[in-house]
Write a structure and sequence with these properties.
281 residues; mainly alpha; 69% helix; globular
Length: 281
């Protein structure tokens, strides 16, 4: 690129976006109570991971989010983004001894980090909604990319005939644009403390999302039960209710008893936090 022209292009702090992404994943881990999910205090419905496993994974992924931001800012082809994601997944598995802690986040948050950097490099708007829509530029590549048909998530998706995260990405993440981001914005604007706002947003996602992790662990019946429980929590005021924490702790015990874990919703919660915070990054 011509050096003179380059000086007039918007400056993108890719390292800062990368650090922000890791920070948002840490923020999701720190939320508690969080039914069925790993928190700093307990492993939820998991017997193969805990908070320490997640922290080792986050340390291994710290360069990935910086590198995918750099690739996005450089308008790199989708193949480059995919290669970075594959390498990041391998690094995660090495760090965790083969445990999948962040595969969904590597995919979705990685794409959103790249899109945020790309929007900045082109001088485009960087609202959370606009960044989601920018992912549609890779729609054709997303749809044609090979799938790992042996992964538990893909087997569950195929068995139950539902759209997965790849379809969400190709459509510009409508669940983030129309549900998660508005919910999080409203909760924070209404004065909810950050942890309460994140818990409220998480349960809103669980109530509405066809969470692949819930399908894998509990089948259609488990997904239906979890969605109904989350919807009842929100209908009862969610985190705006005075007793929200006790109700969520009790619900967490029921999730653990059924070995259910809404990991897909947790990934999208971290994405929501990133989308909101990158607007002012």
């Amino acid at each position: 690129m011509n050096a003179v022209l380059q000086t007039f292009l918007p400056c993108v702090d890719s390292a800062r976006l990368g650090r922000l992404a890791v920070g948002c994943l840490h923020a999701e881990l720190a939320v508690a109570p969080k039914p069925g999910l790993v928190t700093p205090f307990d492993p939820g419905s998991h017997d193969d991971m805990d908070a320490g496993t997640f922290l080792r994974s986050l340390f291994a992924l710290r360069h990935y989010f910086r590198d995918i931001a750099l690739a996005g800012a450089d308008d790199a082809p989708f193949a480059t983004l995919r290669t970075l994601g594959i390498e990041a997944e391998a690094a995660m598995l090495r760090a965790t001894g083969g445990v999948n802690t962040h595969r969904g986040a590597i995919f979705s948050l990685g794409l959103l980090v790249a899109a945020a950097a790309r929007c900045r490099s082109k001088g485009q708007p960087v609202s959370g909604e606009q960044v989601c829509l920018a992912v549609r530029d890779w729609s054709a590549d997303l749809q044609s990319a090979p799938l790992d048909t042996n992964s538990p998530g893909q087997r569950a998706r195929a068995r139950h005939g539902i759209a997965g995260v790849r379809e969400q990405a190709a459509a510009g993440y409508p669940v983030l644009r129309t549900l998660a981001l508005p919910t999080l914005r409203t909760a924070l604007s209404a004065g909810l403390p950050r942890e309460a706002a994140l818990s409220h947003t998480l349960m809103t996602l669980v109530a509405e999302l066809d969470d692949i992790n819930l399908l894998h662990r509990g089948g259609a019946e488990g997904l239906h039960w979890a969605r109904n429980q989350a919807a009842a929590f929100i209908a009862g005021g969610g985190a705006f209710a005075a007793d929200w924490r006790l109700r969520l702790q009790q619900l967490g015990s029921a999730f653990v008893a059924r070995r259910l874990s809404p990991g897909g919703s947790a990934d999208l919660l971290a994405c929501s936090v990133f989308l909101l915070q990158q607007e002012v990054a």
